[in-house]
Design brief:
- The protein is globular.
- Helix 1 crosses helix 8, helix 3 packs across helix 5 and helix 3 crosses helix 8.
- It is 30% helix and 23% strand.
- By secondary structure, the chain is an alpha/beta fold.
- The strands form three sheets. A six-stranded parallel β-sheet has the order 5-2-1-6-7-8, with helices on both faces. A six-stranded mixed β-sheet has the order 10-9-11-14-13-12.
- The chain has two domains: 138 residues, Rossmann fold; 185 residues, Dihydrodipicolinate Reductase, domain 2, CATH 3.30.360.
- The structure holds NADP nicotinamide-adenine-dinucleotide phosphate and ligand 3JN.
- Ligand 3JN binds next to loops.
């Protein structure tokens, strides 16, 4: 089996740390691992497959001997260093928004559009976490009944914002329970015991960039501009696991039991839908898992061909690191790396 020199850029972050775990769990054929981060982390150690490895500062020369680089250090780092890595012969799987809508860059969820990988020119983009878990459920239903419109509201965990936000929720929760004042630093308002209808930046339309990512990325991944999508992205005081309430209208009638049967067959999707037994997907149960969970599948009686669904996934795994490793696995098996 071919083994690869692998770099993880952003190795100290919430996504990067999950990436290392997933690479180990999947027994990915890593010959050598190069953990990269900012100058702040240079010289610190981390453990991969039981071996202590020193973190290096990400710079163009770091990619000289690298075959495959996973990027999870933000858009600016991807914009400046991903082309440098490609120039030096590496294939890049990028977790940021930097290249997602670039027509020359495949935007891939392996269960949905693996064929897009065939045309890659060195960089493959991993979609936004909220998009990934949504298209995992939409695609099989679209193939059967053609989705005309999607209305989605998200309930996104703080781990989507990174390590500092995880710490902020922990600190604020204990401060509030102890009756102490809280000082928001990462979010504009207190996140503990609160709900913020604000993820990423607002634009002149009144929508946030996170909401637009869900709209634009879904059209690209599903190769279909005809599906009307509108999104409201909300941050909730959950550590791990994004949830989504999704309403769809289809061209052909799809009964809840038909949708349930289609989704039960869909790779990477698990149906958890037995309301009489109080069984439905929960972020606490999705955390640490690679699958996308769907339940509360029910008819929308307010329209002719409508369905409501509740979809939950671990945002750091299927929403980021696991999807990225799946892309790399697929590149390997298809001889594209
Ligand atoms: P995080 O926990 O804050 O970690 C940020 C990581 O980036 C750290 O390893 C940090 O290194 C590194 N970094 C920051 N500036 C750098 C620089 N100039 N050069 C090299 N490394 C640098 O954030 P996260 O949650 O892991 O997210 C990281 C990025 O992944 C996000 O900005 C986003 O682009 C992407 N992401 C994608 C999804 C998705 O939906 N697919 C989800 C979450 C995040 P230090 O520790 O040295 O500062
Ligand atoms: O907030 C979340 O739940 C997901 C966050 C994703 C994210 C965070 C910072 C920068 C992204 C992303 O993946 O779109 C980015 C970015 O790359 O723009």
């Amino acid at each position: 089996m071919k083994t690869l020199n692998v770099a993880v850029v952003g190795a100290t972050g919430a996504v990067g740390q999950t990436m290392l775990k997933v690479l180990e769990e999947r027994n990915f054929p890593v010959a050598t691992l190069l953990p990269l981060a900012s100058a702040r982390s240079k010289g610190q150690n981390l453990v991969f497959r039981g071996e202590t490895t020193a973190i290096e500062e990400a710079c163009p020369e770091a990619f000289s001997d690298i075959d495959l680089a996973f990027f999870s250090a933000g858009t600016d780092t991807s914009l400046s260093l991903a082309p440098e890595a490609v120039k030096r012969g590496a294939v890049v799987v990028d977790n940021s928004n930097a290249f997602r809508m670039n027509p020359d860059v495949p935007l891939v969820v392996p269960e949905v559009n693996p064929e897009a990988l065939r045309t890659h020119q060195g960089i493959i983009a991993n979609p936004n976490c909220s998009t990934i878990q949504m298209v995992m459920v939409l695609k099989p239903l679209h193939d059967r009944a053609r989705i005309k419109r999607v209305v989605v509201s998200t309930y996104q965990a703080v781990s989507g914002t990174g390590q500092e936000a995880i710490a902020e929720l922990r600190t604020q929760s204990s401060q509030i329970l102890l009756g102490q004042p809280v000082k928001p630093e990462i979010y504009p308002y207190q996140i503990a015991f609160n709900v913020l209808p604000h993820i990423d930046v607002f634009d002149e339309t009144g929508y946030t960039l996170e909401e637009w990512k869900m709209v634009r990325e879904t059209a690209k991944i599903m190769s279909d501009e005809t599906i009307a999508i509108t999104a409201t992205a909300v941050r909730v005081p959950v550590m791990y696991g994004h949830s989504e309430a999704i309403n769809i209208e289809t061209e052909k009638k799809l009964l809840p039991e038909e949708a349930r049967a289609i989704l039960a067959q869909a790779p990477g999707v698990v149906v958890v839908d037995d309301p009489r037994e109080n069984k439905y997907p929960l972020p606490t149960q999705a955390a640490g898992r690679n699958e996308v969970f769907v339940g509360r599948i029910r008819e929308d009686f307010s329209t002719r061909n409508g369905l409501n669904l509740w979809v939950v996934a671990d945002n750091l795994r299927k929403g980021a690191a696991y999807n990225a490793v799946q892309i790399a696995e697929r590149l390997l098996t298809d001889g594209l790396l």
